[in-house]
Design goal:
single chain; about 375 residues; 2 domains; 7-stranded mixed beta sheet; 12 helices; binds fe (ii) ion; Mito_Persulfide_Diox
């Protein structure tokens, strides 16, 4: 019987920066588009069909006693390859349960820090896509920010902590993943907030996020800051006067892309204004917590993705292009490919279409691609 590794076990290894060797047996196109990354992960690709007549193609690259985790799309062919490797004498072989599909859905909670008056802020890391969501709890109440589609995970976490989810907030209308915000709010009887400028086409009721109208989670205040540029409505949050949740405007290593609604030319000025004026007037001691990361190296100590705002003005190259025309050029010339199915994802998040669960999974495969690539 081949040994199985769960996505949770793999996530722990990645988060702890343990050396991890992955053998991905999907075809090379799929592998090149999207793979397991982060921490000290080393990953090699050998398509499944090359291994059917024998595992020789990987034997040269693999020490017999080395631990290796075989990964495929759904966990079927990885199990077969793992068996073949075992038959060839490898003893430390695992098959990743559920494959990339499960990996894409795993959320790993990391405690960011204590809030004043006994509250706590958690970051939920979706290692398979590089999406980050946040869980703020204080005095028995909770708010979730940029909720993923796997809403049950937040509900379970809330009941484990003995808190009630009262508010569900999205920093913007997402194009890279399906928001679970509205669904979660409905399930728990909470209030769902969206920036009104991103919500002009939505088909459901929501509460508008507005600067000047703080949201209170117990004694903790969440202060919305209008910060357009990635989308016209993009809104950041200052939490407990210490943390700045930047959504998809500012990341640790890069900046947000302005083009996912096809309006790069219009929004690049807004993006510049937010990054070079609006944020610049905030406290440089704020700890930036973004909605995504794109590079494995952004996963810091214990897996957390964060940095001080002041540090980012020193080392994030997207914040260091003073000349406006040069900035415009840098952003528009470095746009990565659009995320998988982004138009359908936007429509789903607006409530215009409601795909079946299987279809949703398929729409979400692949990396997030919300940043400008440099
Ligand atoms: Fe986004």
């Amino acid at each position: 019987m081949v040994k199985i590794m769960t996505t949770k076990e793999l996530a722990r290894k990645v988060k702890k920066h343990e050396e991890t060797l992955i053998l991905d047996v999907r075809n090379t196109d799929d592998f090149d588009n999207w793979k397991i990354e982060g921490g000290k992960v080393e990953v090699m690709n050998e398509p499944y069909f090359n291994l059917l007549d024998g595992v020789d193609p990987v034997v040269e690259k693999l020490e017999i006693e080395q631990e290796v985790i075989v990964v495929c799309a759904k966990g079927g062919s990885s199990q077969m390859v793992a068996e073949l490797l075992e038959e060839a004498g490898y003893e430390n072989v695992y098959s990743l349960e559920g494959g990339m599909k499960s990996w894409s859905e795993h959320l790993e909670p990391v405690k960011v820090g204590e809030l004043s008056g006994g509250g706590t802020l958690y970051q939920f890391i979706r290692l398979g896509k590089g999406c980050l969501s946040y869980f703020v709890e204080a005095n028995g109440e909770a708010a979730i920010i940029d909720t993923s589609r796997m809403t049950g995970i937040y509900e379970a976490f809330a009941s484990e902590k003995g808190v009630t989810i009262k508010y569900v907030l999205d920093t913007h209308l997402h194009a890279d993943h399906i928001s679970g915000g509205r669904q979660l709010a409905e399930r728990v009887g909470g209030t769902y907030y969206l920036p009104p400028k991103d919500a002009e086409e939505v088909t459901f009721d929501y509460t508008p996020l507005e600067e000047g109208k703080d949201i209170k989670v117990g004694d903790i205040s969440i202060q919305p800051i209008y910060s357009p540029g990635h989308t016209i409505g993009s809104t950041s949050f200052i939490i407990d006067d210490r943390y700045l949740l930047t959504g998809d405007i500012l990341f640790v290593r890069s900046i947000g892309r302005p083009d996912l609604a096809g309006l790069a030319e219009d929004w690049v000025g807004d993006l510049r204004n937010t990054l070079y004026h609006r944020y610049k007037n905030l406290s440089m001691d704020f700890i930036v917590l973004p909605a995504h990361y794109s590079f494995a190296e952004e996963l810091g100590e214990g897996g957390q993705v964060s940095a001080k705002l002041g540090e980012l003005y020193q080392r994030n190259s997207g914040l260091r292009v003073e000349d406006e025309n040069q900035f415009r050029k840098m952003v528009t010339e470095n746009l990565p490919p659009q995320p998988n199915a982004y138009e359908e994802i936007r429509k789903t998040n607006m409530g215009k279409i409601s795909p079946e669960e299987e279809k949703k999974k398929e729409m979400e495969t692949g990396p997030n691609r919300c940043a400008v690539e440099r």
